[in-house]
Amino acid sequence: MSIADSRKPRGRPPTGIGKAIGLRLYPELDASLEAWIADQPDPKPSRPEAIRYALTDWLTGQGYVRHREDPEGAN
Predict the structure, then answer these.
(1) Is the pTM here over 0.70, yes or no?
(2) Which end is more exposed in the chain, N or C (fewer Cβ atoms within 10 Å of the end residue's Cβ)?
(3) pLDDT band at residue 26, thresholds of 50, 70 and 90?
(4) Greatest CA separation found in the chain?
(5) Between the CA of residue 11 and those of 7, 15, 26, 50, what are the distances in Å?
């Protein structure tokens, strides 16, 4: 067995769900995202969760995503 064969793979293990994308944010947009995250109750969403939430919210408003069932009636 070679050294290369005995090494663990690097990074997070794949979940098999979703598509990974690379994303760069302009400083103003990044600051706005961080401010929104800071305003959320604990446990605060991660940056990827916040971006998914914002994208889903926008796409729902545009009619591309159906409203999900919301037990609190927020949608």
Answers:
(1) no
(2) N
(3) very high
(4) 58
(5) 12, 12, 26, 21
Find tokens 């793979």 and name the residue.
9
- Dist CA 13 CA 55 (whole Å): 24
Residue range 44-70, pLDDT digits in tens:
999 999 999 999 999 999 999 987 665
The answer to whether the CB of 30 falls within 8 A of the CB of 36 is: no
Beta strands in the chain, from DSSP E residues, in sequence order: none
CA gap 34, 23 in Å, rounded: 15
The CA distance from 40 to 23, in Å, is: 22
